[in-house]
Design goal:
328 residues, alpha/beta, Rossmann fold, 44% helix, globular, disordered N terminus
């Protein structure tokens, strides 16, 4: 009898130890939604190396700054960029009042529901839309309407509210960097007021760490109070070569870690600028190659993917590197 009891105790202990070991491994993996590929290991190796006190490539906390593009890097940019969602009703009303606006390619594409033409219009097209619907509105009127709408509008592909349509592997990466003393920033081509309105809810990044395209504003007075009113222009288009000056203005330094995506050539300039800093750095380019679970698209000339290979950036294959895309 005692032998049987001893055997059960040993079996129970073994199972308990196995369970504890499994839980410990799960907790120890900061990037659980990533497959165990060379890209994942490179991220962990880099963070481990630059945070090793006394190590040859140690980087102090105040230099651990990570900058990420948003659309296509942290959240899906297909079938349409998230910043377009607040535009629909306002844009149609604006065109009724001023029909000549429909001559702009992005606006025409939006009104026709031509997703391909809208995407081809790029960041400039998106910002034509933004400038049109914000013209004469106050900054507060625009900002306060965004988050409630994003919480109640479902993403066409993933069928969750837009506030939850974020890449799970990238939110894990943001948390991992944050846990290791990094300060995470967003540098997006989308309007800065839009991104600031959603950044904390969607990505845990406070609005003061958001950079983006800035629309022209002017001081006005309404009901006896001063307000900032959009004037229908774009002050700075935060895309491609426009991103490094924006980052420098906000940070005064080159970021040590930069994440971007292929598809619009928009992130290579800031990735190269990061790569050329003095000291260690890491650049991550998301490749949209998974038609089954997300979307599959690329630039006709493979500009971004070719640049990544040329300059030594790490390429994330959504198909091969990510176990999950969007959290259920």
């Amino acid at each position: 009898m005692w032998l049987r009891t001893f055997a059960y105790c040993r079996l129970g202990s073994s199972l308990a130890f196995a369970l504890i070991a499994t839980i410990a491994v799960a907790r120890a993996d900061p990037l659980a939604s990533w497959n165990d590929t060379a890209t994942k290991q490179a991220i962990i190796d880099f963070v481990t190396t630059i945070t090793q006190q006394g190590g040859p490539e140690f980087v102090p906390d105040d230099e651990r700054v990570a900058v990420f593009d948003m659309d296509g890097t942290l959240i899906p940019e297909k079938p349409i960029p998230a910043a377009v969602i607040p535009l629909a009703a306002d844009l149609k009303e604006a065109v009724v009042k001023k029909p000549i606006l429909a001559d702009k390619p992005a606006i025409a594409a939006f009104l026709k529901g031509d997703e391909a033409a809208l995407y081809d219009a790029g960041e400039q097209g998106l910002n034509d839309l933004i400038a049109t619907i914000t013209d004469s509105r106050t900054t507060e009127e625009f900002s306060e309407s965004i988050l409630p709408l994003m919480k109640t509008t479902a993403h066409d592909r993933f069928h969750v509210p837009y506030t939850r349509a974020v890449y799970k592997p990238m939110t894990e990466l943001l948390s991992y960097l944050d846990d290791n003393g990094f300060e995470n920033w967003i540098c997006s081509g989308s309007p800065v007021l839009f991104t600031r309105a959603v950044s904390m809810e969607m990505l845990g990044i406070p609005p003061e760490r958001v950079m983006g395209t800035s629309s022209g504003t002017k001081l006005d007075e309404r009901d006896g109070k001063t307000v900032l009113v959009f004037d229908g222009t774009i002050d700075h288009l935060n895309d491609q070569e426009g991103k490094p000056p924006t980052i420098n203005l906000a940070l005064g330094a080159r970021p040590i870690f930069v994440g971007g995506n292929e598809g619009g050539r928009g992130d290579i300039a800031m990735m190269r600028w990061s790569k050329d800093r003095t000291g260690p750095s890491f650049q991550l380019l998301i490749n949209h190659d998974d038609a089954e679970r997300e979307f599959e698209y690329s630039e006709p000339d493979n500009y971004s993917l070719d640049a990544a290979k040329k300059y030594g950036f790490y390429i994330v294959s959504i198909k091969n590197d990510w176990k999950e895309i969007i959290a259920p």
